[in-house]
Write a sequence for this structure.
């Protein structure tokens, strides 16, 4: 390693709040006397954010002998037997970071597997970790990565990771995954203790994996209020054997979604029971715990110490003044948001630019959380919001050339337009959006992949086409959105701004990967749907949750058996059980297909009654699926494989993590400028039934 590159790595490590581990001039034998003691490192090991010449390594080793700090030896080897150790150094840990350790190893070779471990001063070692560096930016090899989201250790099992590990171990070296992209809800800060719901949650048994020392109880669940509370959730989750094995096997590239801070949280604010309240201290605590437990190249502006986060001092203060993009200007709010910058980009070989964005720290208020508009969603039409009302809310004061209506559409009783004096909704915020568009427009990779924790695909239904007399008249003017706000399916203006830039700049190879929705989706990225012009500019994929419950499971428990519209959500043709997820059919084909399927049980006849204008952008929707997705990206195609497992109620004892329900691949040939992207669908195994086209 040259002096120049050494200085560069030291500066990088300092900027990341990580210790620096340099490569030796030549490999050495490992340190003598190493003895694995997993019990001393109960949260395992991890690596993150690989680049061609460096990667972050992580562990936690708590000392309980009263010392105020300690050093761990980090060793990196070219082989799993540690006979060729190419880097080693000491890293400082202390209670200030909850004894977590971040180390940046520099001077590595690109596209190469390495092994690493940590040792304390008595030679007691962590389990071994395996990681992989990124290929260099001119490397034409195919990139392979998995993307996941939404693991709930309190309510389910992480069989998806066991399946991923099982398949990867049996793949040839060139077919193995390069990294795992985690799109958030790595933890769920909302915790039901087993005694809070003795009947469980839907189909789930509640586990007592975490209890908050200073938690706040809201209704029948608990939320964290302090740094120690947030840290406790991460520790509890990392005790899950399958999650821990996955972190030890692949580098993770992680981004938070909402639950790393707060369910309906935005900026430094929380929303519970329709009330928005200041929560700057909790936002900082959430950021600090994330920083301590996720090895990621995120920026903390609070000093270069490697053993501590140095949180800014904030107080919970009401936020009342917002700028033109909805950013709360209250100083504690700004300090809390700025305590950690998560959005960032990675180049992976010639074909991948991964642009990772933060959907919660800078967003403006989600209109759908406002209690004044709750009447838009009624139990008569479960989960359905009039689309035209969401369009008005999104545009705020810019609607109709600056003439927003006083009320939202034709709903009765009249629902006030609570955003008629507000700027248009933004999810990225002004600064992040400028960064994102600049990176997107200047990318030279074959595929520009937007890693966006939230789904971008519209999910709508056509209640206006219901037979009259079946239920109350639909209170909207046309289509209904089933997404309930909060993501890009109702951030119409910002989505259009991004997609218009893609179109205007002639960008090809634009793909989005998302989580959050606890369901599998594949489709085309379009800013509008019929009757507006349908102009796809890219492809978009959403993965099912690893383990958190989805809407189908919720509907099975909460939708009344005698609801007049039950057949739109859960079908039971000829009284068959268990009910089938008709909501998949509703989103792709419309109400008439659902009613036909319920009546005849004949899928072909149901499909024949499709509404062709409802969802020309969608190829696949499974609102009940769990599992993960694998992406393969080459010079001429983008493939996304959905691997769907049964509802993960309990941990599978099988080495493969249990059976598969299906494996479906969507493939997009690289399109040329001016051409439309297209999706090809291949069922590899299993039967996705109502999810299919
Ligand atoms: Fe989630």
């Amino acid at each position: 390693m040259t002096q120049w590159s050494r200085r560069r790595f030291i500066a990088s490590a300092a900027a990341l709040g990580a210790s620096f581990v340099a490569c030796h001039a030549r490999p050495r034998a490992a340190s003598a006397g190493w003895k694995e003691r997993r019990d001393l490192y109960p949260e395992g090991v991890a690596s993150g954010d690989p680049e061609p010449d460096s990667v972050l390594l992580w562990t936690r080793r708590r000392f309980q002998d009263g010392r105020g700090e300690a050093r761990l030896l980090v060793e990196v080897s070219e082989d799993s037997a540690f006979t060729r150790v190419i880097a080693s150094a000491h890293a400082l840990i202390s209670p200030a970071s909850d004894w977590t350790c971040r180390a940046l190893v520099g001077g590595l070779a690109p596209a190469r597997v390495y092994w690493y471990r940590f040792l304390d001063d008595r030679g007691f070692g962590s389990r071994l970790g395996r990681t992989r560096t990124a290929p260099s930016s001119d490397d034409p090899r195919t990139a392979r990565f998995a993307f996941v989201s939404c693991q709930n250790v309190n309510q389910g099992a992480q069989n998806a990771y066991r399946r991923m590990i099982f398949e990867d171990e049996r793949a040839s070296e060139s077919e193995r995954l390069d990294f795992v992209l985690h799109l958030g809800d790595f933890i769920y800060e909302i915790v039901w203790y087993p005694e809070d719901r003795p009947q469980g949650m839907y189909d789930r048994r509640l586990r007592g994996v975490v209890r908050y020392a200073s938690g706040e109880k809201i209704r029948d669940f608990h939320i964290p209020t302090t740094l120690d509370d947030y840290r406790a959730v991460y520790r509890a989750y990392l005790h899950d054997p399958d999650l821990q094995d996955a972190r030890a096997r692949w580098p993770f590239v992680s981004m938070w979604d909402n639950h790393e801070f707060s369910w309906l949280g935005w900026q430094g604010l929380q929303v519970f029971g329709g009330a928005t309240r200041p929560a700057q201290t909790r936002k900082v605590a959430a950021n600090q715990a994330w920083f301590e437990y996720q090895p990621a190249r995120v920026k903390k502006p609070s000093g270069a110490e490697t053993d501590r986060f140095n949180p800014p001092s904030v107080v919970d203060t009401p936020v009342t003044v917002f700028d033109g993009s909805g950013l709360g200007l209250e100083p504690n709010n700004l300090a809390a948001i700025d305590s950690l910058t998560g959005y960032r980009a990675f180049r992976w070989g010639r074909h991948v630019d991964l642009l990772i964005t933060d959907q919660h720290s800078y967003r403006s208020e989600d209109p759908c959380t406002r209690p004044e508009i709750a009447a838009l969603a009624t139990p008569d039409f479960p989960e359905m919001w009039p689309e035209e009302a969401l369009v008005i809310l999104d545009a705020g004061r810019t609607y109709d050339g600056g003439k927003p209506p006083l009320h939202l559409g034709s709903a009765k009783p009249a629902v006030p337009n609570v955003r008629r004096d507000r700027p248009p909704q933004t999810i990225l915020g002004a600064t992040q959006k400028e960064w994102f568009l600049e990176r997107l427009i200047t990318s030279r990779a074959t595929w520009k992949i937007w890693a966006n924790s939230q789904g971008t695909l519209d999910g709508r239904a056509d209640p206006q086409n219901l037979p009259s007399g079946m239920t109350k008249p639909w209170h909207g003017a046309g289509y209904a959105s089933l997404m309930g706000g909060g993501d890009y399916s109702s951030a119409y203006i910002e989505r259009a701004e991004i997609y218009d830039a893609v179109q205007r700049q002639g960008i090809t190879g634009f793909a989005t990967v998302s989580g959050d929705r606890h369901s599998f989706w594949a489709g085309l990225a379009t800013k509008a749907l019929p009757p507006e012009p349908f102009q796809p500019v890219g492809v978009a994929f959403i993965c099912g949750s690893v383990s958190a419950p989805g809407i189908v499971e919720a509907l099975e428990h909460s939708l009344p058996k005698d609801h007049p519209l039950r057949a739109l959500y859960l079908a039971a043709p000829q009284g068959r059980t268990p009910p089938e997820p008709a909501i998949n059919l509703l989103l792709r084909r419309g109400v008439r297909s659902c009613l036909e399927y319920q009546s005849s049980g004949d899928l072909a006849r149901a499909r024949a009654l499709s509404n062709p204008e409802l969802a020309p952008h969608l190829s696949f929707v499974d609102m009940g699926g769990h599992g993960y997705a694998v992406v393969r990206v080459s010079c001429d195609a983008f493939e996304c494989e959905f691997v769907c497992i049964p509802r993960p109620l309990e941990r599978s004892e099988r080495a493969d993590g249990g059976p598969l329900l299906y494996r479906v691949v969507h493939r997009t040939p690289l399109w040329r400028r001016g051409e439309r992207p297209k999706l090809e669908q291949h069922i590899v195994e299993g039967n996705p039934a109502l999810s299919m086209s």
